[in-house]
Amino acid sequence: MILTQRQLDVLNHVVEDGQAWADNTSEKNMFAKVAKYESAYDEAVAKGNYQTRKQRDDAGEQKRQDEYDNASYDVKRSREYPPATDYLDGIVKGDQTQIDKYISDCLAIKEKFPKE
Fold first, then answer.
1. 13 shares its domain with 53
2. Of 14, 50, 17, which is closest to residue 32 (Cα–Cα)?
């Protein structure tokens, strides 16, 4: 579907790829979506420092990744520990090898992420 630049800008405000979205919908749906979000797009542009939906999503993903990467040592540790059910399973089965493996895995995690 051929869009005007304005239609494409409004759609890109709402969806990641306005052209791809328009190509996979009816003309009626496209006009309805543009009409519905046109004022929100105009308000966002008027505020300045405008970003498309894709730019906002990418920035949010980067922020989440930064928060994940910069977590404190205890959070990083807790993500890495093996499930406690492995340890309990070893106890119930009487499997000393499984218990020892669990303990050595936990010690390795403590060494990898020492207390700060």
1. yes
2. 14
Q: Burial of 89 by CB count in 10 Å (0-12 exposed, 13-18 middle, 19+ buried)?
A: middle
Can you tell me the distance from the alpha carbon of 82 to that of 102, in angstroms, rounded to the nearest whole number? Answer: 7
User: Looking at the 3D structure of the chain, how many domains does it have?
Assistant: 2
For residue 45, give its domain range.
5-64
What is the rounded average pLDDT of the residues 65-74? 91
| Rounded Cα distance, 43 and 57, in Å | 19
Same-domain status, 57 and 81: no
Task: Please check whether residues 56 and 80 belong to one and the same domain.
Answer: no
Reply yes or no on whether the pLDDT at 115 is more than 90: no
Tell the burial category of 22 from Cβ atoms under 10 Å away from its Cβ (0-12, 13-18, 19+): buried
CA distances (Å), origin 36, targets 10, 25, 40, 53, 111:
10, 16, 8, 16, 55
Check: pTM over 0.70? Answer yes or no: no
- pLDDT at residue number 55: 94
* Digit-coded pLDDT (tens) for 7-20: 999 999 999 999 99
